[in-house]
Amino acid sequence: MPLILNLKLSDEPVYALGVYFSYDEELATKRNFFEKLPKIKKNLNIWSSRDIPIYGRVNIVKTLAISKLTFICSVLDTPKGFTDEVNNIIFDYIWKYKNPKLKKTTIVKHKEEGGLNMLNFTLFDNYKALKIQVIWVKRLCANDKRPWKFIPLSLLSNVGGNLLFRCNYNNQYLTLNENLPKFYRDIISHWQKVNSTNSITKGNMLNQIIWNNQFIRVNKSSVFFPLVGQKSALKISRAFSTTKAAPGCLLHPLCKNTTSRVIFYSITAFYLQYHRNGNLC
């Protein structure tokens, strides 16, 4: 066991605030997730010996099983296969370890629709993850200067900081900082599902921000100019306007170097492609 400043560093996972932390990701995943399942199964087995109607068993599952997993699934990524194991345990208990009498798609419906208002843990986990990521986007975009924002926004500076969440981006075309934590990468991936669009109309297209746009790429990557982007969130409509200050220059003040002209040509190609296909109206 190594010593630093006469402090002993443990090789075992450290437990704090309800979470096990460890350099061994597999061990941490085992402690935080899979080791909870035998305890949940044991508790449900104790209740299985009692003659409880199915509505009561649904309530027991929500109280003694799903509630034990909500917190850890809200702060850590749920490992592959975990939600399937949870579903197997809770549905086995609901049907008293016999063949199910209703389909899962039916039992999870509201009572008014002929279901039992049961939770499908896989769908619940996906919805929960998406909801939490949206909350974090709102926090990052809030107009305040919280100290915790310094690190994530600094690491996102090459894509515009919180401006990214206003852009019609595609994660595969973004050049993200290699030091950006997985937590924030997941936020970006989830927000893409909420915010990004492939639906193109003329008004929709012209109102999109140029930066990080999934349809405007240079060398197969979305683009962002930090010095210009921080001053204004340039929209595509700017590329097709002229002013007295810069007559004939369709994307001023960008059209001053080769890369800027490439961006303009990419925007023009994007516009013409959809115009020819009749998608712009």
Topology of this protein?
Blueprint: E1 3-4, E2 7-8, E3 14-16, E4 19-21, H1 25-34, H2 36-48, H3 54-75, H4 82-94, H5 104-107, H6 121-141, H7 150-155, H8 182-195, H9 202-206, E5 217-218, E6 221-222, H10 226-229, H11 258-276
Antiparallel strand pairs: 1-2, 3-4, 5-6
Helix pairs in contact: 2-3, 2-4, 3-6, 6-8
Structural class estimated from helices and strands: mainly alpha
Question: Uncertain runs with pLDDT below 50, 5 residues or more?
Answer: 244-254
Count of individual helical segments: 11
Q: Name the strands of the widest sheet in spatial order.
A: 1-2
N to C succession of SSEs: EEEEHHHHHHHHHEEHH
Instruction: Work out the number of β strands.
Output: 6
Gap between N and C termini:
68 Å
| β-sheet strand percentage | under 5%
Instruction: Count structural domains.
Output: 2
Helical content class: 40-55%
On the 0-100 scale, what is the average pLDDT? 75
